[in-house]
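#structure-requests
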Amino acid sequence: MHPETLAVRGIDVNDPTTGAIIPPIQLATTYERDADYNLLANRDYTRDKNPTYGHAERLLAALEGGHEAQLFASGMAAATTTIRAAIRSGDHVVAPKVSYFAIRAWLTHMSERFGVNVTFVDTTSLDEVSAAMRPGQTKIVWFETPANPTWDVTDIAGVVDIAHRVGAAVCVDSTAATPVHTRPLALGADLVMHSATKYLNGHSDVLAGAIVTQTDSPLWQAIRALRREEGAVLGAMEAWLLLRGMRTLFPRVQRSSATAMTLAHRLAELPGVTVRYPGLPSHPHHAVAARQMTNGFGGMLSIQTGGGAERALATIKKLRLWIPATSLGGVESLVEHRASVEGPNTPTPPDLLRLSVGLEHPDDLFDDLKEALND
């Protein structure tokens, strides 16, 4: 089936007992054994055996073209579990200078506490990535593409080629792209990560994370073991809501992406406004994005207002439709001043506003921005 059909219809979601076309939520935390004290259906405890997880995990693995998926309590839980599973004290991690700020902060703290070496590089420069490699010591290369909040685009296949030469695994945070726009595993990545809170769920009402693997590797078994042992799982209700969200993944993401492209072109015509969107030919990584992204360039863009943080924050105050809030990927359009959120050490330009484009009419969204920027 085409991925659009697969997302809507799911995998083995119909309930054979009742004929329901929506899978049931299994809220039980423990499972009965038979008279000989054998497990029924290989389930003993909900921490990693709840059947509700399986529906969403199988669907996401299929959409990403992967071997298997694991759900986690949050995107951060998925990311930190993966990196910790890959390394030991003295090992080396290569990570991006531009990415979700909480990952950068965690990597810095982790390196200080546990004796792990981390090199932050511009992952859009293959020369920088290559120079950072330490044969025999670099265990994982982690990067995000498009990267939050500047939406820089990294050449996935290029980084994979460099990393695999020294035996390092590659994990791509594809939260902003989703499998609608990019399938990192098809480009050679070993793992793909999602903050499923965002586009995969799509309704701003679930906290979740996910990792999908290309193969059943020793690293994958280590990730599975850490999730089981440490219990970084989400609840059954969240898993069910995530599956519900993925049923509308393609129309939601494609609509947001089309609107983002429209806004990017129109905003770029406004005097004094700089637009960061990989779908524009003016974006420095547009050629890479056009090569590895399909069905559009995503629903995230950023604008620089000029005038520093003062003008950017003043613009937010004048907006009527765009909601000033953290997060992204929901049906509603959000605006955020990233420099304020990230704090004094942020690399984000002070005049940058991050825009998460929702499902509203593009004219309404543009008119609201234009009015706020022109005042």
